[in-house]
Design brief:
Pfam families: MTPAP-like_central, PAP_assoc. GO terms for molecular function: metal ion binding; poly(A) RNA polymerase activity; RNA uridylyltransferase activity. Keywords: Magnesium, Metal-binding, Transferase. Its cofactor is Mg(2+); Mn(2+). With 365 residues, this protein is an alpha+beta fold. The chain has two domains: 116 residues, Beta Polymerase, domain 2 (2-Layer Sandwich); 242 residues, Poly(a)-polymerase, middle domain (Orthogonal Bundle), CATH 1.10.1410.10. It is 43% helix and 10% strand. The protein has twelve helices and seven strands. The strands form two sheets. The protein has a five-stranded mixed beta sheet, sandwiched between helices. Strands 6-7 form a two-stranded antiparallel sheet. The chain is globular, with a radius of gyration of 21 Å. The two termini are 36 Å apart. 33% of the residues are buried.
């Protein structure tokens, strides 16, 4: 995401904050905060705005159903306010979502926005992911590549039973913590974070928040992996296409080692389980359909055979898009086209198409 986009986002959130404070009965301390991919460092120039209204004066110890009703009431008030303004459209209140949200579009900026109320865990999730992407310069471009690959292959829409972009980033961090040699540490080791332990929405939240302290402590132990971005991207596909046991193991970034569904006391169903870093009862991929999960595995398997034959860096040229002079539009378009055109070549044409098993794959290589 370029700086111009970030500035526009911040300006819009500040203006919206003033609008709510001037027209709704909110405490003086209430304010809107951006979270999600624009904050974590994995946001693209066309990403949605995730916004949280905090300090609303809601007692978090209330009965959960009452807590939800109060949040819904505030969201309804915001929705009614925005409907009176021609600058806002496509206003929808998702009452029955796990966390109720108000979706809307700001027409002058073309921003698609989601507002939630007092969802503090989401703010910590964004901060934790930001620390991971700041630890190694390869993490953010890898995240962009995986999100682009998933979008090109049509496997990134959670509303249609696929894996969400957020879950893909957790899956990436999980892989980078366990590749050989590992690239990322575990930032939620409880014994290292007792001083920062707090309870948020009923869950333990602990992690070291100072990236400089994190690098001082861990970086000397995580410098031996010199793989290129392309190698890591292909190995990510290979890991989830052939190595990771989706039906029995859990994707979790809290602790080292293998954590399976028996340990977590969750059903041994043929479903992927990506654990939220803090809300341990939240499977980020609970809504993924079985046929989409099978197709996801095929989308991992097919590209690695073809892409290993190519120049390993060619389809990562677009990672520098945001660093290129904005005036050089022709170069930006060319670099972007390289990635999408090459990756698109290897999209599975049919969901029931069969690809090599582990042994057959090794013979091909």
């Amino acid at each position: 995401m370029n700086n111009d986009r970030k500035i526009k986002m911040d300006k819009f959130v500040n203006l919206l904050n003033k609008k709510l404070k001037n027209n709704l009965d909110l405490p003086n301390e209430a304010k809107l905060i951006l979270f999600g991919s624009p904050i974590s460092g994995f946001g693209s120039n066309d990403c949605d705005l995730d916004i949280c209204l905090i300090n609303c004066g809601i007692d978090s110890s209330l009965n959960p159903s009452i807590f939800i009703d109060i949040r819904l009431n505030i969201l309804s008030q915001i929705g009614n306010l925005l409907r009176k303004d021609d600058e806002f459209g496509e206003i929808i209140l998702l009452r029955h979502a796990r966390t109720p949200i108000l979706k809307f579009k700001h027409l002058p900026t073309n921003f698609n926005c989601d507002i939630c109320i007092e969802h503090r865990l989401a703010l910590h999730n964004s901060e934790l992911l930001k620390l991971y992407q700041e630890f190694d310069e390869r993490v953010a471009p890898l995240g962009f590549a995986i999100k682009c690959w998933a979008k090109l292959y049509g496997i990134n829409d959670a509303s249609k039973g696929s894996i969400s972009s957020y879950a893909y980033i957790i899956m990436l961090i999980y892989y980078l913590q366990r590749c050989s040699p590992p690239i990322l540490p575990f930032l939620q080791q409880e014994e290292d974070n007792n001083n920062s332990l707090k309870i948020v929405e009923g869950w333990k939240v602990y992690y070291t928040k100072d990236i400089n302290l994190i690098k001082q402590k861990f970086q000397s132990k995580f410098t031996s992996n010199k793989q290129t971005l392309a190698e890591l991207f292909l190995n990510f596909l290979h890991f989830y296409g052939y190595k990771f046991c989706i039906h029995s193991n859990i994707v979790q970034i809290r602790v080292n080692g293998i954590y399976d569904k028996i340990q977590a006391k969750v059903p041994m169903r043929r479903k992927i389980y990506v654990e939220d870093p803090f809300d341990l009862n939240h499977n980020l991929t609970a809504g993924v359909y079985s046929e989409n999960l099978n197709y996801f595995i095929k989308c991992c398997q097919k590209p690695i055979i073809g892409l290993r034959q190519l120049d390993k860096e060619i389809f990562f040229l677009n990672e520098v898009n945001d660093q290129i002079d904005n005036n050089n539009k022709l170069q930006k378009e060319k670099l972007k086209m390289d990635f999408t055109s090459i990756i698109s070549m290897y999209r599975p044409t049919e969901k029931n198409q069969k690809y090599p098993n582990r042994e057959e794959f090794q013979q091909i290589l």
